[in-house]
Amino acid sequence: MASQRGEGETTTTPLEPADRERARAIPEAAVARLAVYLRVLSGMADQGVTAVSSEELSQAAGVNAAKLRKDLSYIGSYGTRGVGYDVEVLVSHIERILGLTRNHSVAVVGIGNLGHALANYGGFPGRGFPVTALFDVDADLVGIPVGGIPVNHIDEITAVCREREVSIGVIATPPPAAQSVCDRLVSAGVQCILNFAPVVLQVPDNVEVRKVDLAVEMQILSFHVARRADEAVHNSSGGVSVGNNGLGVDGMVIRP
Amino acid sequence: MASQRGEGETTTTPLEPADRERARAIPEAAVARLAVYLRVLSGMADQGVTAVSSEELSQAAGVNAAKLRKDLSYIGSYGTRGVGYDVEVLVSHIERILGLTRNHSVAVVGIGNLGHALANYGGFPGRGFPVTALFDVDADLVGIPVGGIPVNHIDEITAVCREREVSIGVIATPPPAAQSVCDRLVSAGVQCILNFAPVVLQVPDNVEVRKVDLAVEMQILSFHVARRADEAVHNSSGGVSVGNNGLGVDGMVIRP
DNA sequence: CCGACTTTGTGCATGCGTTCACAAGCGGTA
DNA sequence: TACCGCTTGTGAACGCATGCACAAAGTCGG
């Protein structure tokens, strides 16, 4: 489902006409990479670079040049053949596609070690994600400002989230509380959740969940350590060549 | 390269004979899910559950039942047809494949907000990953214990990592320092890195990097917010059906 | 001891994402 | 203006992962 292209729209759309159709066609993996490109491009812009080729950008982002061009083609044709891409133009178009033109109010739930760290990030990396609300069950924390924002009690979550138009909820609670918090966020109208708790959240279909799971990350690394160790034992030759292709957005390129 | 299957080994191997061959064949995405299954199974074991079917486990892990069975088949046939899986057995086999039978010493570099949070996790989620070393550039922090471990100066990184046999390095520094820290970790013999800095690290092929990028996660969520908002504007019908398939290990299932 | 039911394990088809390779297009130059 | 070299954009092939559907295999009840 969802793979049919809606055609025949002739109304004057408030947001670009053909972009919507493109947006729904962008593979999730490509979206993740676009965010990386955006950061690299922003860095280049800060250094005064105005133009870049797909080869240069792909090197900096740690991906294949062809893949980069395909990723960029998902959002349109904004390059100049024979020349490359204008950094500013690319930045603005990626920002538009990623929806970074509007601000996304963020609420952090669970003000423990991690919650503190998140709250203190201060405007979150890559501006546009202001933390506007903090919540915790601990009554002793309520009212105390963390990173400039006072902590609210978790029971106020619905009212506060609605009032401050929170669009992204970050769950940094202990595992047992995560599902309950998630449910409350959802019923408060939050449709995007970033979950740091090592729990598989159950949510309705209209809610988007991204998961950051330290234990899983560590265990994946552990797997590779073990595999490598075994290979080392069984292969008399010491040749190492791994190549971290596969899923994920990690880049890994030999420096020039 | 690396896709040939080494056969003809008849020596008594310290680690199971046919498992190595299996291990290198497990898709990366499946490895990530195995870690999730392991957590779910551990939780079940704690609650006294001794047996589980693929259907139950897949529900709890938020994945398709067929996919779960296929994932488990990568590590061998440890189920009983007509019955299901023995929880203990499955746990021990997944742990073995993921290399969790040995401890993996972890070093955290960059003792800021995030570094503090990581150090205080205390033995890291899912035991087996003891934090044994902390590093920072700030001389004022050196010697002060965080989460029970004294902070070392970053210049000692090579000596300390070698001495404590650190196998996983966690980078929680500001972006500009990340590549430098990474280089030092690599030259200290660390082959696995978990990177929290919003930087694309350049490493040699024999080093495995996993990335946790908050900005990217937020921007992916932002993308979905924007897409959804556009759809809401253009679709008069209010039907919502997203389905978070694609990359990643996130689960999303309607609760029973 | 046998039959019926249940659940695993997996061959196969489908779909998605990555990669290749090249035509199209643009700027610079004579 | 016409040519030449360079880089983009993309059609098509490839490969991997997912999901389906069923045979294999084991248990339980009679």
TrEMBL record, chains A, B:
Binding locations of NAD(+): 110-115
GO cellular component: cytoplasm
Cross-referenced Gene3D superfamilies: NAD(P)-binding Rossmann-like Domain, Winged helix-like DNA-binding domain superfamily/Winged helix DNA-binding domain
UniProt subcellular location: Cytoplasm
DNA bind region: 36-75
Segments for region (Disordered): 1-21
Pfam family, one: Put_DNA-bind_N
Single annotated GO MF: DNA binding
Keywords: Cytoplasm, DNA-binding, NAD, Repressor, Transcription, Transcription regulation
UniProt GO BP: negative regulation of DNA-templated transcription; response to redox state
Signal peptide limits: none
SUPFAM superfamilies in the record: NAD(P)-binding Rossmann-fold domains, Winged helix' DNA-binding domain
InterPro entries with a match to the protein in the record: CoA-bd, NAD(P)-bd_dom_sf, Rex_actinobacterial-type, Rex_DNA-bd_C_dom, Tscrpt_rep_Rex, WH-like_DNA-bd_sf, WH_DNA-bd_sf
Stretches assigned to the CoA-binding domain: 99-200
NCBIfam families: PRK05472.1-3 (NF003989), PRK05472.2-1 (NF003992), PRK05472.2-2 (NF003993), PRK05472.2-3 (NF003994), PRK05472.2-4 (NF003995), PRK05472.2-5 (NF003996)
Summary of subunit composition and partner proteins: Homodimer.
Family: Belongs to the transcriptional regulatory Rex family.
Function: Modulates transcription in response to changes in cellular NADH/NAD(+) redox state.
Protein known as: Redox-sensing transcriptional repressor Rex
